[in-house]
Amino acid sequence: MRDELMSGLGEECGVFGAFDFDGEDVSSYIYYGLFALQHRGQESCGISVTRTFEKGKNVQFHKDLGLVNEVFDKKTLNSLEGNLGVGHVRYSTAGGWGRENSQPFVIHYIKGILSMAHNGNLTNASVLKEELATTGAIFQTNTDSEVIAYLIARERLHTLSIEDAVRSASEKLEGAFSLVVSSPSKLIGARDPFGFRPLCIGRKDNIFFLSSESAAFDTIGAEFIRDVEPGEIVTIMNGEIISNKMRTTKKQASCIFEYIYFARTDSFIDGHSVYKSRITAGGILAKKYPVEADLVVGVPESGLAAAVGYSQESGIPYGMAFYKNSYVGRTFIKPKQNERTSGVQVKLNVIRDVVKGKRIVMVDDSIVRGTTIRNIVKMLKEAGALEVHVRVSSPPFKFPCYYGTDVPSKENLVAVNNTLEEIRESIDAESLGYLEIDDLKDLCPGLSYCDACFSGNYKGGEPIKEEDIGCC
């Protein structure tokens, strides 16, 4: 569990699409797909569907603030009749909090209706928005996702097909984007040339799916087909997958933090197992920072696999020290500092019998400000732990992220203005060890990745204007 207590730190959004060529409704598939992606966004969600076999049939959609099982009930899902649709779960950074910023965006224009869901963050959104506004576009939100939707609609006026419009629009975008778009008869996926954000294709019988993560396919009993490649536009129509490439090409730069924290442990991204990546990270920590201890524990959820890796490499037994209340939202969603702090105890509880009288190695995925991990160390010691040695399965955060992870300015990052020893003292741990930047290459061998939040190496460039900092 990352320390999310700094202002505005958030995770990714999640996108999902489904197209049933037998003509059956897909809203329930999208619902369960979004449920599987709930960890990527817990502020709002939405589903948009259409019937491809009824000409002139309007798009039906429902979206609102809240978790997937709060926004949708059986009656609402049954009312969403259509065999083609897209869905979205959102955590806001850019654009702010509010129902109007919920996705998918549904746009009525001269060529028909399109629905779009977006994960990522553009670094040139403000320039594109000004350009669109001068040609008459009226924006209902302040998100970069709406800019993309309008840009696609405009490009469609000058292209022969919606997939050509998506490609033309995508070539004007800078930064990170994974898109799922539905037209009256096509499901389209697009991934930026760097491949910052994940997107993959699945299938179940005659139903095709697009998803931010492969784990969602397991939830609905679908088969993982492949990842959408960086810079690729896939069009699903007539029971086929048609691939096109953007003219813009870049060296792949998948977000390494997907493997450390964002993605579900059971997902595969760009051919690499998230679980194995985290096991590897824990093993590296055990080699670099050995310590005499009685038990290795992980902070749920993304610290658990890394803790197993530490245990396997060190030979120190692994144990479950925390009970996690799965019905509590992530701590950073709380708007006030005191609410975030108290939320840790609501969400996590220490199992006293496990830790009492023991020297503990506690593995977490990252530290941002330090408040959350300090509270967890305190909870362990209050439960009777004799020592707490903290191991972190990522390098120190030292730079903001501009590609969809809302890591803010440097002054909020504990590792910028404090030494390792000062951080250790501030969280009251007996010892502290981070993964090093050079270790990241071992998590996913052969993968070209982005580590800008740790290194400051922004492969996709920096925002043109301050208002471009943020996420979908």
From TrEMBL:
[4Fe-4S] cluster binds at C255, C401, C450, C453. Keywords: 4Fe-4S, Glutamine amidotransferase, Glycosyltransferase, Iron, Iron-sulfur, Magnesium, Metal-binding, Purine biosynthesis, Transferase. Signal peptide: none annotated. The keyword Nucleotide-binding does not apply. CDD domains: GPATase_N, PRTases_typeI. GO terms for molecular function: amidophosphoribosyltransferase activity. Binds 1 Mg(2+) ion per subunit. Binds 1 [4Fe-4S] cluster per subunit. Mg(2+) binds at S302, D364, D365. Pathway: Purine metabolism; IMP biosynthesis via de novo pathway; N(1)-(5-phospho-D-ribosyl)glycinamide from 5-phospho-alpha-D-ribose 1-diphosphate: step 1/2. It holds the Pfam family GATase_6. The active site is at C13. In the C-terminal section; belongs to the purine/pyrimidine phosphoribosyltransferase family. Catalyzes the formation of phosphoribosylamine from phosphoribosylpyrophosphate (PRPP) and glutamine. This is Amidophosphoribosyltransferase. The lineage of its organism: Bacteria, Bacillati, Bacillota, Clostridia, Peptostreptococcales.
